[in-house]
Request: fold
Amino acid sequence: MPLSAKKKKVARKKSTAKKASGKKSAKKTRSIARESKQKKRARVKTILQELDKAYPSVECALDHRNPFELIVATILSAQCTDKRVNMVTPELFSRFPDPASMGEAPLDEIEEVIRSTGFFRNKAKNIQACAARLTEEFGGVVPRSMDDLLSLAGVARKTANVVLGVAFKKAVGVVVDTHVKRITGLLGLTRNEQPEKIETDLMELLPQEHWIRFSHQIIHHGREVCIARRPQCGACTMNRICPSSLADGAE
Ligand code: SF4
Reply:
């Protein structure tokens, strides 16, 4: 077959597949919209059981030895992988081991250490200001309340929830990062796009005892199975109840 005819055939195949998957996702979107509250609660229960089975003992992937290190590592993890953050924090914390030394550190020295995490100028300013406020207002101790945490530079609800959940085991909210945002949408648990609205949806749907571990489980699932751009639906234990599943035999 001449090359151009071959190319046309491949293009036709791709376009048919695209149309088919478009129809499939439109059908699924309609099915989520129609889902009763009772049905959704039953589906959530199964999702939580599957996550507990697949990820029974997940933990925060950011290396830290205390709440101060966790808050700094979480600020650094914005738009950056946890692996990369874990590569820079040993050096950062050996130079500036506590809020007092980090708050007084020269900005360019912090920048130099954290450069590879991206947005390093902004992050350096935030962790320096956060550490200074911890020293001046909180006696060098990371506070345990959402409001106090939100008063620190560079800390929004995601970081505050990580610190409250991981360091203090307090389930005040649900961590919504990029994996949680993407996968809860795919699972039909939320139709919102803004993290705070997604968090509200999840707090309504999930029993509070799951709030802390749910995000860690979903983050692991996003790294191992429901990978962005190439979700492994065939290997996903939630494929029968996921409205976005592309696995064979999925509804
Ligand atoms: S079935 Fe597919 S889209 Fe749904 S959660 Fe699993 S991997 Fe993600």
Q: What stands out?
A: The two ends are 38 Å apart (CA to CA). Confidence is low (pLDDT under 50) at residues 13-24.
